[in-house]
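User: Show me an example of a complex going from sequences to structure tokens.

Assistant: Sure. Here are the input components:
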Amino acid sequence: MYRTAARRLLGAGFTTSRLLRLPKPRPTTTIIPYSYCTSSMESPIGNQSVNPNQSDPTAAREEGHRRDESRKPRAEFQEEQARVLAASLRHVPRLGWTEEAMIAGSREVGVSPSIVGSFSRKEAALVEYFMDECLQLLIDRVDSGLDLQNLIPSERVSKLVRIRLEMQIPYMSKWPQALSIQAHPVNVPTSFKQRAMLVDEIWHTVGDGASDLDWYVKRTVLGGVYSATEIYMLTDDSPEYRDTWAFLDDRVKDAFDLKKSIQEAKYFAQDIGAGVGKSFQGLMNGVMQTMSTRGGRSSAF
Amino acid sequence: FSGFQQVKEEEKSKLVGNVFTNVASSYDIMNDVMSAGLHRLWKERLVGKLSPFAGMKHLDVAGGTGDVAFRIFDAVNSVKRRALRKVDEASIEETQIYVCDINPNMLNVGKQRAAERGLSDNRSLVWVEGDAEALSFDDDSMDGYTIAFGIRNVTHIEKALAEAYRVLKRGGRFLCLELSHVDIPVFKELYDLYSFQVIPNLGELIAGDRDSYQYLVESVRRFPPQERFAKMIGDAGFEKVEYENLVGGVVAIHSAIKL
């Protein structure tokens, strides 16, 4: 049931994360001569996302058969873009999340750097590709037998977040730039969606079965923990990021305690409400009595 | 003559040649007046979409007066950009922008403007006389191909597109800026009124040539609408064909990639 909630919240993009577990389909051999899509000045973000992971399986199903034909030749562009972005990642530690890195990447792949001009929101395309790749790696790690059996939920969450954050270590010097790119208003919808998918994946792996309001609370809380740890990591100098992992463990513990605290806060509020209600009622009774003895003929009450 | 007249193919290129010989000298002024200066913004957007890089080999077709070429040159060479992007001087030297036009008069205007900017000796800008349907460049030699307000004058659009496909490298970008079709109800009528009543009169007044501008306006109407043109681009072999309407469709930028 959480999946339907996820779909409501995140829309079409979410189902991709489930499908990431399946092998990618082979591209078909029929060559359709053209593919095109329209864009106006106000084209919706993500509508024409060329994110390679959000490719054919979801698209074909979601957008109906009519569009199906036009997707296949675009797949070649998606593949090419993925190749260029993958090669570009190697240049990021030196050149940052910039067009230069992508130009260098495209040269490596043997494609004209002009192709970079056609990526939507250029640097953001690179960052988003990286985020998707990391999520895919995380899923693969989990699928290939990560041992979580002997750990309590809070430790499982810690471990998964740690695995995911460790993927960013090679790019740590340029990660603040990636964060600022993700924070651009134009890029926020996509980066938010990617983080939501990540957080959801972690909870799903931990074995979460909640489906009510708790679902949103859990995702939000973990999102907060993840972001806080990510930012802490930027300024951490300790060997092997020991301080970051300690910070992470503390935050996760707080989060799990938070659940209890929220419950306690609810009871506390109820008690207060009852108390206040009683005293308010008493106040009103007193007022009315006073009015009637003094006014006599008053018909207000 | 009018653009709506059925003109024999060989004659079309001669007529177009005449149009632009007449038009060349006041071309820039007329552009400014007809579009109220907006054509500059459109060209800026075109070059923005191209994302020029240092060391690129670019071909601007039918760009005789050099508007687009100069913008690309500036984008690659601007000091600010160089400082920001840590580009080495060597790759800037390698940048080659070819300006190809069928009409030598237009090219001369372009060369003159280059001289005014002090760029007449610069090896990055190369002025070539040539036909969009039969380019003299090698296969797979260009990183970018632009054609701004030129493709509607080509007799065989498919040939021009095929040539564009031929000269582009793998990953190369095709960009076409062209007057296109407006569909928005009220605006369409206003635009038609402006086109048929105002522009030929302006042409008369400023360039002393009503007929050429009448031809211009009518040739815009004959040009395929956005979707059909996009299909033609795709048929030439390009991938990721997209278009963007500016000013409600008065102008459209089509873009595509060769893969």
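The lines above are the inputs; the final block is the predicted structure for all two components together. The interface with chain B takes residues 33-41, 48, 50, 73-74, 76-77, 80, 98-100, 103, 106, 110-118, 122 of chain A (CB under 8 Å).
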